Prior knowledge:
Layout: H1 2-22, H2 28-36, H3 47-77, H4 83-99
Helix pairs in contact: 1-3
Amino acid sequence: MENLILIVHVVVSLAVIGLVLIQHGKGADAGAAFGGGNSGSVFGVQGSSNFLTRATSISVTLFFCTSISLAFIASSKHEALSTLESVINENTQEVTDKNSVSQDIPN
């Protein structure tokens, strides 16, 4: 399950990067007002911005969901003890190792 979420996370992150790079900035609209715009594009004048904005928002939402789920999986895997409990466990392990009697009994 973790591998599937990780694969989706990587694909969605690459999609977000690509979608952000494809979009026009706010300053690009000023250039289009002076005749620099191309009205013969595939989506029309405003169609591409709406489509790209929606696709980016969906991709970012998926990215955050996969990020949260990966963080939850990682935290549930490594349920750490407090520092004091881990030191106590290490000390009790050392004491039991020192007190153990060898089981070498000759026949």
